[in-house]
Amino acid sequence: MADSLHKNFETLRSIFEEVLKMKNSTGERDRADELTEKRKYASLLFVLIKKVNRMVKYSLRSGREDLHREKVQVDSNRLHLQNLLYEVNHLKREIRYCHKFKSQDEDIELVPEDDEAQMDDDKTLMPTDMTPLSGHVKHLARLERELNLRKQLSAQCKELLNTKQQVFRDIILKTEKLTSFAPSLRTLLKATRPLQDALQVPMDREWKLQQLVQLLPQPLYLAYMNLHALELAKECDVCVIVVGSEDDVRQLEMAAQTETIKSGASSDTDEVEVGSVTKKRKTHGGNSDLLVDLMQEQRKRVLQPHPLEVRFTIGNGTKNTEETIAIKLRYFKRLGFVTAATVVTLGETEQNFADATLTQDVLKYLNDEDLGDRIPVPGAEYELKNINMSTKECLDYLKAKEFGRPYRWLQSMCCIEVFHEVVDTNVTNTPTEQPKLQKLIPDLIKSIQQLWNSRLNLIKQIRALVQKHIDMYLKEERLPTTRPACSLVQWTALTYEEYVASSPHVDKELVNVNQLFYRAVVVRGSAKMECLVSISSKFPTESPHWFICIYWNGQHNAMNSAAVKSMEFWTNSLTQSQLQHPLALLATQLVRTMYSFDIFLETEGPLYNPVEYHREKHYIKAFAKRIRARPYRYIEGGTVNTFKQ
């Protein structure tokens, strides 16, 4: 068709050229007929070209329609292939999900297989041909038994809840009856108060105390009941009371309930607020005060003790009630331990001369391995880390607030779980088994009373030495009748740092921070003797240790003088079992030291000119040879006191 159209165009072009040539020639008139024929032929060619053009358009339109149909078919096939590809991918994902599938019943602890119950349940599932059950069918049977068991437990739970509601209604009814009975009971108490005073039976006071006892936390309640039983049995000289207000306990319980509700409702909000405050603090630094306030409030809640405290008083075992020691027990619920603080009551005379170290923290001398400088309760360190506080800071806070120390024996007394003290660092701490309270608490009370009596005896001895009454408790002892020529001029208390710095020859291995330290100054003429005394916490079981330094013609101590070393041995060898009076140990040691000082000066004095000290005491020499030992020991011989080596 294109060739025909092209051919017609060529023919039409040739006709146009021929007509143009004819017009340009001279014989145009002669060829008029021929031109007319050419024009007609050209007109017919136009018609033919038009026909061919229409046929070309028709063929183009049909081609476009065929092309559109093919495109539609290709798009349909492509869409179908894409759908198939999507289905293949979907099936692959489902297959992976199937491989990773984990049934929820795998996390459920099913009832253990019981042969009889399994046989009864499996009979219903077993086919008629008695084929053995598969593992899946057995698992379904166990799940069915678990479901039945849970239904039974749910029914029992509903029944118990109904019973609980019934009991709660009964409690409310009885409470209303008691409330209505209370005014009549108060009237009866007021009417019988003269009879109570006459019989010395304060019923209202006992009832108020019982109300406070019921509000005690469990550790303090156990301690109170055991101590109260000892008080009633009169096994020990102890008196226990509960100190605090019932209103404070109610307010604490209401505050705890409110805090629990708020924390459960707005835990997410608090995290967002704290996170935003921290972020602002890092970027701008303007809201750090808010974070500090939140931390301070949290510390206050963690370090807040229970409003009630148990206080038991221990006497000195005599009828004199002025000298007592009261121990206050406070419970910290968030930290989980109990602290003990002491309140010492002395007579006016002893109070004036008692050193502060003698009356404060008396309980830390109860056990050398339990000084209260650690927190032995598991979980307390975790709570302290949450409020950015170390153990030392917590103990310092308790000491500043006069709450006392968390002793290990105190936690055992209140049935609180404590850790073992492990020496090896590679071994982890394990909770200890709580001892029986029937034996533990009486032994503790007796140990505290014994420690308190020892401390009272020490206070009385120190009071006598401070007042220069050396011979107050020496009347029953076997001592020379002649008084020492030297005199005590000073008896003062020292700290551990002052004690160590006083003399470089002091053996630091024999002393520790928990001991009591004193300085005694004895003078005779131009000679001075300085004695450093360290008293152990186990006084009088362990005798006080004396370090002697003499200032006369130089400095003499145990490091450079055998005589002073012998003097120290003669003084430190004295024990309480060698004495008659229980309060004569310190005074007897001092008297021995003073006699030794006199003998040292009288034996060394003649060797120097001018002679300042002459021989005033009678000595005998038990050995023929010359020895370096001084005659410090003495022999009773009537009115004459003879000293020997």
Automatic annotation (TrEMBL):
Family matches, as InterPro entries: THO_Thoc5 (IPR019163)
Enumerate the UniProt keywords alphabetically.
Nucleus
**The organism sits in which domain of life?**
Eukaryota
User: One GO molecular function term?
Assistant: mRNA binding
A GO CC annotation given for this chain:
THO complex part of transcription export complex
Primary location class: nucleus
Stretches the record annotates as Disordered: 262-284
Q: Where in the cell is it found?
A: Nucleus
One Pfam match, given by its short name, reads: FmiP_Thoc5
> Can you supply a Gene Ontology BP term from the record?
mRNA export from nucleus
Family, according to the entry, reads as follows: Belongs to the THOC5 family.
In Swiss-Prot or TrEMBL terms, this protein is called THO complex subunit 5
- State the organism named in the record: Bactrocera dorsalis
Q: Which gene encodes it?
A: LOC105223298
